[in-house]
Amino acid sequence: MIAAQELQTDFHYSHEADTQLSSDTDLEDPESRNAKPGKGKKGKKAPSEKVKGAGVRAQGRVNGHHQENGTENLSLFEIVKLGKSATQSVVDDWIESYKSERDMALLELINFFIQCSGCKGAVSSEMFRHMQNSEIIRKMTEEFDEDSGDYPLTMSGPVWKKFKWGFCEFIVVLVRQCQYSIIYDEYMMDTVISLLTGLSDSQVRAFRHTSTLAAMKLMTALVNVALNLSINMDNTQRQYEAERSKSLGKRANDRLELLLQKRKELQENQDEIENMMNAIFKGVFVHRYRDAIAEIRAICIEEIGVWMKMYSDAFLNDSYLKYVGWTMHDKQGEVRLKCLTALQGLYHNRELNTRLELFTSRFKDRIVSMALDKEYDVAVQAIKLLTLILQSSDEVLTAEDCESVYHLVYSAHRPIAMASGEFLYKKLFSHRGPEEDGLPRRGRQCRNANLIKTTVFFFLESELHEHGAYLVDSMWECGADLLKDWETMISLLLDETFPGEEALTDRQETALIEIMLCAVRQACECHPPIGRGTGKRVMTAKEKKTQLDDRTKITEIFAVALPLLLTKYSVDAEKVTNLLQLPQYFDLEIYTTGRLEKHLEALLRQIREVVEKHTDTDVLEACSMTFHALCNEEFTIFNRVDIARSQLLDEQVDKFHRLLEDFLQEGEEQDEDDAYQVSSTLKRITAFHNAHDLTKWDLFTSNYKLLNTGLQNGDMPEQIVIHALQCTHYCVKLLLYWAPVSAFCLMCQRYLSSLSTAVKEQAFTILCDALMIFSHQIVASGREVLEPLVFSPDSSLQSDLLNFILDHVFIDQDDDNSTDGQQDDEACKIEALHKRRNLLAAYCKLIIYNVVEMNTGADIFKQYMRYYNDYGDIIKETMSKTRQIDKIQCAKTLILSLQQLFNEMLSELGCNFDRSSSSFCGIKELARRFSLTFGLDQLKTREAIAMLHKDGIEFAFKEPSPQGEGGPPLNLAFLDILSEFSSKLLRQDRKTVHMYLERFMTFQMSLQREDCWLPLISYRNSLQAGADDDTLSVISGVSRGSARSKKNKMASTGKRRLPEGVSSDAGAWMTREQGVQQTPVMMSSPHMTSTVLRDAKKLRPDEGYVGVYTMSNDPQHTPLHTQVAWMVTQRQQEERANLQNAKMRSHMQHAIRRSAGLMEDDEEPIVEDVMMSSEQRLEDLNEGMDFDTMDIDLPPSKNRRERSELKPDYFDPASIMDDSSSGLSLSFFFFFFFFF
Question: Contact at 8 Å (CB) between 985 and 945?
Fold first, then answer.
């Protein structure tokens, strides 16, 4: 079929004759079909004919636009976009216009495609007459507005989604309505195909995407026309053969000639259509199926799938299938998905399977591998395609191919699991032999019995025995009838085998019971297992009815069978545990309405026997939950079940008291059998105490006595202590008295020092739970009456809890002894890690809910980098929650953790450590990670970051130099770590922090250039890098690029000026910390008023240099500042201090200039002359610029990350300063303007 040469952008077809059909179309005049236009490009008319046609055209259309009632002009694009008119009527109007004046109609169609591409330009009549298509496309490309990457096909919203559908529908209807004559006129289709081919080769994505979609839809419509022609030709040929086979006397020669003529016309039309399809396929598809844009490739593959399915005789061959096979390797999941959906349409028709054999053998491996595709949607469709291939032939897929799909029934992604379950069901359960037709519908010999056995065999062979619920869920939709055949399952478990049948093994019976339980749970809960569902959905009325019917059926069947099953398997713990979960899904009313009370009595007797026989925790908890489910006061069976429960507990409690008394009297000569009896009895009671209220048996006293004896003697068996702690914990939660709570917590604290790791872990877990239950949260939501129960841990208990975490959680894998010598077992390692994560999460919960002091989290946070893989998510979430509670205290905790690591490093490496060492770099990297957790909103974390810097500076200068006077302080290198947080400071806060840093510096420190002083230099540079330009603009009275600052200049002229370097927000964190020693909380910006007045005092020179910060070496010195930082009288002191500050700066700068000869030429001065700039040079300043260089680039920094983090957008005062900070900067300006 495809035999034409490659098409150029402009092309025409040579036709020998036009097609004349005796069709019944009502859109085209049959007489007009005899008048063919002249051949050649666009079939141009004579000028006079064009003018005449234009006049006729103008009566119905204006500028190629529709006229509706003569009031509104709409283009084809606007009509399709609105979607209010029927597509067929729009096409009919265009055909009428084409008949009257085809040039103008075709021009409108061309502009339709141009506008659908999002181009604002339009093709004029002059361009249409005199320009080639390539020239028109080039002109439209020049007029295309590419400022926005959106165009109609990519725009979101219901309007544009509807437009895409209308656009495709318009093309299909246009070809369908023109299929009898217009598409054969050598003009319309030639022009449209030539235009679309040229646009599809454009560099403009919008043109390429839109034209490709139009061309592919045009091709699809032509394929439909070709298919109809082929059918008509076959019918005509049959009619001709039938007429010709008649005898000469009955043969109608006129009819034979008419049929021959019709067949000739149909053949000519088919040749025309084939030429058009060749042109589109070779001109558009062959190039665009590998386009750089995934959407375009997907369109091509989707449409070729339609062609092969619609006209399989012409397109379903390897020449076209190869494109789909190649594209299955596409990098984009969207394209791969289209390949699979296209193939599904082909494989679904079994009549086409023989034509797909070669393709299947060639690309089968690729399809099988796509079942593991990283895109879930692609994997689902690949499995569905494999299911269709499996249905077409059982021999195509090998056993290895099927096994690669089988294991996906355990996938966490439910659509993949459901598709795999269907594949499994079709492969293993859908085949039925003729010998199975006579088998009974229920019972051990029914057909489902063999299928259930097959399910059990598959479940065991998969070696994922803990995931039976996932297997059942995967097969639920396709195999629900099989999985709901509980009678057959019970028959396989209880009935005797018939002759020749192989009985189920113990392992197979266990698997069958688990599958049976999972099927019951799925039928009653109607939602997928944990980890596979996306949330609860609303059930339909039909689903609710099915659920009720299943629950009734389950109760009727298992109420009778469950006691028998428990009798048979009463000694098997695993089987009994699963069987005892069935009553949770019973409709208990049926016990009464169905007269099944005797079966209830049998069930209660069996549960009692199970409790007496077993000590396994899972079995006992299952018995406890069964009693809890049956003891429902809403049903009449409650009294019967409650009596049975009370009798059982009476026996167990009496036995425990008797055994405990004898056991405690034995003293140091404790018998192992007696210890086992006490432990097992206590274990049974604890299991029931978890779900039932046992306060009337007064178990707290006996258990507390047992625990106290264990502490005194120190030789209590481990299991007894563990169960006694757990049982006492349940008692305490129900007693609701403060004294037992306090005594029990003290008891658990003492057991934290036990020699047994299991006992310590149990005591720690119970302590964390008890502290959470009886914390201050208990009085929330109007529960003030419970305030006497609040128990807050003292410092000793907090310390013990923290030490337990450090000793038992933050350990290396090889140091964990909880696996008892099985460290090499990967499963044991995972289990141990899971246990440690639970312990850490329990403690972090205490931090988050403010049960323990937040600063205890420093020991947790400092482990963030070292144990990131094991606990990184828990620690990060803890930091996030604590920051939400108290930003300042969280920041202080973070800096405390860094200080602890720094001190540990000094202890290990000494004071002369190398700052390039792995220990120091690790602390610095941890600081960088901490800095990233503060986010990008600096205003929210402003006060916290400032407090963090304050604590860091104080720590750096806390210890004197080990080298004596003149040497760097011991912790000076900590400033290098602190510089990681400098980027989080606001500009005005950087200056405040810098002034606070200068408070601890001496004049000699500012002149030092040795390597040991590099942390100080680096930290000062990090503070000055983002604040220098702000300082210049404030002092010189010029504010660049801030409209808000200009407004605030006028507003602040009448206000009192604040001294330099002080801000109402940035300074409050310092004075509040000095005045109040309690845990700081977030406070709003202080008001500029106060009711407290103090006499102004003269400041010493050193105080003037320091500014507003007070510093005293006297430990008894008490700061005068209170929680309200800025008093009215204090401003007078600050103004005087600022005068002395400016004078001292001037003296220092002169001294530096005099000593400049002592410095190297390439070094920067430590103290810059902040008054050296002028208004003229200020115009060239940029953010982060140093005063000495005046370059536009950021200044060189010894810390690489400082440069990368100083982004202008984050530090532009016009964008981040609030009104208070803007007013503050203006106050600085007016203050200096007034004094200088």
Answer: yes
